[in-house]
Amino acid sequence: MRQEGVPGQPAGFGARDAEGSAEEALLSVKTYSIRRGVQYKVVESDYRRYVGKCSEFGNGCTWLIRLSLRQCKGLWEVKRYNGLHTCLATSISSNHRSLDYHVISAFIMPMVRADASVSIKVLLNATAAHFGFRPTYMRVWLTKQKAVALIYGDWDESYNELPSHCKPLVSIDGTHLYSKYGGTLLVAIAQDGNSNILPVAFALVEGENAESWSFFLSHLRQHVTPQPGLLVISDRHNGIKAALEAPDGGWLPPSAYRAFCIRHVAANFALTFKGKDARRLLVNAAYAKTEVEFHYWLDILRSEDPAMCDWANRIEYSLWTQHCDEGRRFGHMTTNIS
């Protein structure tokens, strides 16, 4: 149906023009209002009926529409319609009140589904060209965020599902920043079942010390990695040790476990015992997957220098060897992913 003198504009509603779900019916009313360039106000709205009147109702315009739920079919349909508008178009601004999230979402959804990276500018210009009114940038931005969530899932829900796809371990490390303001970057990195590296937390602190590590690890445990049985792989920094051994930190066994990065252990070892061969023997012992293989390399290390073996034995085996990790490392012997 078309209204004479208003090319391309709908004349009004027939018995089936607004038939469908509640969302479809209201979308039809709003779209008509936008196309016609008029405003209307809702005078009644509940789970069974929806009544709208022209904003100029009583001032010469008699436009009114009543939609009702037909319960036997579960569809909404037009029950009463006073049309057409006898008032002049009232919207002279670039925006329109009815051009809300629901209308914009219905229009841009196919574009977002085809390309989630489509820019807000493109969506805004397309919406303006289609409806003849230009919504605000923020309205289109918010609508796109909701559209992405409807298509691909809610960001918060997706983030909360992240641990179920990751190995139950995090690798933590710190690195000095050499910019104008200095400081240290602390990071926590996880890895999923496909070996994709996932940064899960970071903090900018004044330096690596017990206070900064305690701050970082307490928030990491509380907000990001609360699951039980988690393994933390790190170097042997005293600040990390103090934070992980705090009684109220949540990092003590059996709630969580700790393991050392063998690269850092070997570096500490090399400070006392020189020579690449000795270091290699220690690393081979750490990577050994069975107790027999571990003692094979440890015996060779002892034959080289008993002091080397004594040095290694002073560190609890479960902290640096693979054969005593009870499968918690998943083969991660270093903090290289962080």
For the largest sheet, list the strands in their spatial order.
7-6-5-8-9
End-to-end Cα distance:
64 Å
**Rg over C-alpha atoms, rounded to the nearest angstrom:** 33 Å
> How much strand?
15-25%
Q: Per the principal axes of the C-alpha atoms, what is the gross shape?
A: elongated
Biggest sheet: strands, sense, closure? 5 strands, mixed
Oligomer: single chain
Indicate the mean pLDDT.
Answer: 87
Annotated CATH architecture of the largest domain? 2-Layer Sandwich
Looking at CATH, which topology of the largest domain would you report?
A: Nucleotidyltransferase, domain 5
The overall strand count is 9
Domain Transposase MuDR plant: 27-77
Domain MULE transposase: 170-268
Pfam families: DBD_Tnp_Mut, MULE
InterPro entries: MULE_transposase_dom, Transposase_MuDR
Task: Provide key terms for this protein.
338 residues; alpha+beta; Nucleotidyltransferase, domain 5; 3 domains; four-stranded antiparallel sheet; MULE_transposase_dom; Transposase_MuDR
Give the helices and strands, then pairings.
Elements (H helix, E strand, L loop, with lengths): L21 H15 L3 E6 L3 E6 L9 E7 L4 E8 L18 H14 L5 H12 L5 H16 L2 H7 L7 E8 L7 E8 L5 E9 L4 H15 L5 E5 L3 H7 L11 E5 L1 H11 L3 H12 L3 H14 L1 H8 L3 H4 L18
Helix pairs in contact: 2-4, 3-4, 6-7, 8-9, 9-10, 10-11
InterPro entries: MULE_transposase_dom, Transposase_MuDR
